[in-house]
Amino acid sequence: MKVTETKLKGCFIFESAKYGDSRGYFMESFNEKTFNELTGTNTHFVQDNQSYSTRGVLRGLHAQAGEHAQAKLVRVLQGEVIDVAVDVRPNSDTFGQYVAVNLSADNNLQLFVPRGFLHGFVVLSETATFFYKCDNFYHKESECGVNPLDEDLAVDWQIPVQEMILSDKDQSAPTFKEIFGV
Measuring CA to CA, how many Å separate 53 from each of 9, 121, 159, 166? Predict the structure, then answer.
């Protein structure tokens, strides 16, 4: 497994080795011991989630606050997305900055989104199956989010706005400035 830290400290891109032959392929997509050695963390994932979406669906930017914050390891099982992580750690040198990573079933990349980040993705392919591991359980009362089309964040989703499909909740989410005051 190859790992690269992004410009946002603690946010890593993983690439798993894929071994193929005439029968198909084999790939170890996660190994807790290796993961923790490569990231220098002691992360233990407790919940797996999966979503299926069509082209243009944008989910995010979401997080859970306080003691219910979640770190996520995300990947695409089928299709292709642009995956975005925004640093909202108050004392971080990269507060308010984001990384965008192309994740697909073909490139085998995964993104580790640590606690203290907003997360979202948009589907580029006709359909996509998105899978992610969380290190804390879902807690509805701790949900929070920022409008993914916030002009101050200026995330490059790599798809025209008129092609995007957002939930009412995401469309009406507050701006970064409304939540963080900057």
Answer: 29, 10, 15, 11
